[in-house]
Amino acid sequence: MRTKLVAGNWKMNGSLASNAHLLAALSNTVFATLNAQLAVCVPYPYLSQAAAVLAGTPVLLGAQDVSEHAKGAFTGEVSAAMLADFGCRYVLVGHSERRSFYGDTNESVALKFAAAQVAGLTPILCVGETLAEREAGVTMQVVSSQLDAVLAKSGVAALSTAVVAYEPVWAIGTGRTASPGQAQEVHAQIRARIEQADPTVAANLQILYGGSMKPDNAAELLRQKDIDGGLIGGASLVAEDFLAIAKAA
Ligand code: PGA
Q1: Side-chain-side CA neighbours of residue 5 (13 Å)
Q2: What is the distance in A from the centroid of ligand 1 to the CA of 230?
Q3: What pTM was computed for the model?
Q4: Right CATH for 5-248 from 3.30.160.20, 3.40.50.300, 3.20.20.70, 2.60.120.430
Q5: Which residue numbers are catalytic?
Q6: Which atom of ligand 1 is nearest to the CA of 235?
Q7: Measured in angstroms, how far is the CA atom of residue 72 from the centroid of ligand 1?
């Protein structure tokens, strides 16, 4: 039985003051009423603030990107070991905004995934197709090539300490959610693909859905057989909404 994971992706939002309010609300949740593990992926400068407020709670900490390099002359980059130093458990790799605005490729994402695992972090590998790709009928080819780059670099066993997030690009921040059926179909295909390589890894792999998941659509999405949680952008910035999604799991 896979446990559900509901992870917030704050993206480039927040301030010390607004984070204090949001983190306090999260840390005051009655966790016993939740079926889901909670995590928040916060901007780098706020990792220590989040770590301090969430200490002693079951909410896990994550970052939104990581360097593929371990250390050295890479101005502006942040290594996986640094994230581990600040108490991160998770790190997003290959988010579509990194892929489309910052040049992340399947190959660089595979390197970031591997670097995260070397430091003991659990990468959340984001995959998903654009609207044009969906309309062209190549959703699974796109998602498979995103997965295959990681499998080629790290091997299928590496997915036993990783999470996959299926995020159709056309659903991110648009208010246009994949229908539960559309999402379940891709999730099942992702699991089937991993199953070909290792049935046990596939059976235990958490596959999150991301893309305009909100309190009013979360329950139905999270009820799907192969949807093991959510990666929540906009709604993770409002404590009540994030917690309502977690309660729906
Ligand atoms: P959204 O973002 O929930 O605002 O659509 C999801 C994500 O990009 O991870």
Answers
A1: 27
A2: 9
A3: 0.98
A4: 3.20.20.70
A5: 95, 167
A6: 3
A7: 32
